[in-house]
Amino acid sequence: MRNIFALSLLVLLSLVNSQPDGDCNPTPQTFPTLFLDGCVALGRINTTCDGYWSAFSSAFANTDPSGITTENYEDYFNMFPITAAMDTFLFWSQTIELSVMLSCMCNAADVFSGPNYFPISIMDKIADRLDMPMTQLRWCGTTSGGINGIQYSGMCPCSTSYAFFQEFSVRFAEAAAGTIFYLGFGESEKGAFPLNSFFAMHEIPALNRNLVDRAVIMVVHVSQTYGDVSERCGQGSLLILQQRLVEQIPDIDYSCYDIFGYPVNTDASLVEVTDCAANIITSIQEDREPADDPCFKKEVSCPLNSGRQRRQDNNGTDPCNAGVSAGQGVSSLIIFWASLLVLVFAAS
User: Fold this and answer.
1) I need a surface site. Which of 152, 177, 196, 240 has the fewest CB within 10 A?
2) Which of 243, 259, 258 is nearest to 204 (CA)?
3) Is it the case that residue 148 has pLDDT exceeding 80?
4) Which CATH class is domain 25-82+117-175?
């Protein structure tokens, strides 16, 4: 029966988290020009950029957009192997501005994320020129009409560009080594670890247990008062995150920090929050505990594997067992969805 409950949950989650259907934004009219300009702005010469555009566009041009998968982009991504140093991989969800600043800001932490990776950097520059978030940038090909096999009129299926970012996410996670870092937004109604995020669906399952040995989670908050939907370390979806990580890497060490002062509708304190996150990352990279700072609070620190020695706080208690465990959090979800299924079948 327990296996049936778990299977029911997995089926329901797969329906929610499957690749998006429907239509999204059309291909920008100046997409090739913007791509080449962005490539040159990133320090490549024109002839090299022409080759990059040819490899990228051939992944979807003259092709039915409904049939595009991650395999279409393999040749393009093979041109850019990920060779970042261990202990530098930064994952994120709902914190793109902070992640970009950590990746690109002088004197910030030594981290590697999408903005440091050439294929993603180009997309970021294109989106910036179009004055839109990179997450809204779309493109697609066509088997009839269009220009050079690219569809510029009408909406594009969301799946065409989704497959591009999915392929990057998997490769990025597969290359991660040592300590990985994750930035989540604790004030989101989706939770600090959204179950339909790329990190949940594609990146955690691709982590290599032989390469990754520690996860440092940073959850940003607007203030220390916490809002009605706030999730702190050791609560809500972050319990599921703990469980997902230990299922993927049984011997992983896990630390979680709540970071305060994330700005809403203003850039006033974004630099301060970036410095705070950089302090945590840099300290851990140097194999030392982050210095005390009012901008953050360490909530959880422990090896998740019950067979290993766990750290204890000053009171001799185990922070990993405080409150509801990750397993209990997942069990509660299983019971909820199983009950829902029973009601649905009873009504049918």
Assistant:
1) 196
2) 243
3) yes
4) mainly alpha
- Residue 128 amino acid letter: D
- The conformation of residue 314, written as its DSSP 8-state character, comes to T
Write the single-letter amino acid at 153. Answer: S
Strands in 173-260 per DSSP E: 178-185, 212-221, 253-260
Distance CA 140, CA 155 (A): 9
32 within 8 A of 211, measured Cβ to Cβ = no
Q: In whole angstroms, what is the distance from residue 277 CA to residue 257 CA?
A: 9
Token pair 């497959």 in the structure block, residue: 163
Closest CA to 188 of 136, 241, 236, 256: 236
**Smallest Cα–Cα separation from 137: which of 172, 162, 166?**
162
Fold of the 85-111+176-308+320-348 domain: Rossmann fold (3.40.50)
Q: Where are the domains of the chain?
A: 25-82+117-175, 85-111+176-308+320-348
pLDDT, position 332: 38
Torsion sign, CA atoms 53, 59, 63, 66: negative
pLDDT for 16 beyond 80: no
CA dist., res. 341 & res. 343, Å (int):
5
**pLDDT greater at residue 334 or residue 301:** 301
Q: What are the pLDDT digits (tens) for 59-85?
A: 999 999 999 999 999 999 999 999 888
